[in-house]
Amino acid sequence: MKKIKKRGAVYGVIALLLCVAVYLNWSYIGAPEDLLVAEQTEPAGEKTSAEGAETPPSSDYFAASRLTREQARDEAVSTLKEVSESEKADQTAKEDAVAQISVLAENSVTEANIESMIRAKGYEDAVVMIGDNSVNIVVAPPEGGLQATDVTVIKDIAVSETGMAGGQIKIVEAA
């Protein structure tokens, strides 16, 4: 009986973390209808600002990257959930699947936090992807490109949020 309650609590926490991750991601990239409308009304490639100057489609890149990241994560969670609920899987495989789902949920929340903190520091946008032993960050560069101080600020955010060493963090300037 205790195992069932404990398992239910674990599933509840995982579900809560996934809901928080989805909400945070949703609030940062906007509703999919907004993305679809933007794709239909603007040609792929470069957009035109109110002054008539062409601006790069950086926000499209970031939105598309976040969407792709979430779709891949959702597929992984779905597969892991199938394993954790499978009658054929042994207990170790089920526990590993639940642990991996938990890690994916935690990574999702951490990615959203890092992206939010980068924007709070004045950068236009960023997308973060956390792997097993690395963090990849793509940043919309400020005027004049990313400087050493920019990289230091962003790396400090990632180190403090993930606990990874600076050598495990790669920061790339969006083109």
Structure description:
It is a single chain. By secondary structure, this protein is mainly α. Helix content is 63%, strand content 11%. The protein is built from 5 helices and 5 strands. It has helices spanning 2-29, 32-41, 58-85, 91-120, 148-162, and strands spanning 47-48, 54-55, 126-130, 135-139, 169-173. A 3-stranded mixed sheet has the order 3-4-5, with helices on both faces. A two-stranded antiparallel sheet has the order 1-2. α1 packs parallel to α4 (91-120), α3 (58-85) runs antiparallel to α4 and α4 runs antiparallel to α5 (148-162). The N and C termini lie far apart (56 Å). Residues 30-56 have low confidence and may be disordered.
- By DSSP, the count of extended strands is 5
Provide mean pLDDT, rounded. Answer: 77
Low-confidence stretches: 30-56
Radius of gyration: 19 Å
Query: Which bin fits the share of residues in helices?
Result: 55-70%
- The termini sit apart by 56 Å
Shape: elongated
Number of helices: 5
Outline the biggest β-sheet. 3 strands, mixed
Which series of helices and strands comes N to C? HHEEHHEEHE
Spatial order of the strands forming the largest sheet? 3-4-5
Strand content: 5-15%
Helices and strands: which structural class? mainly alpha
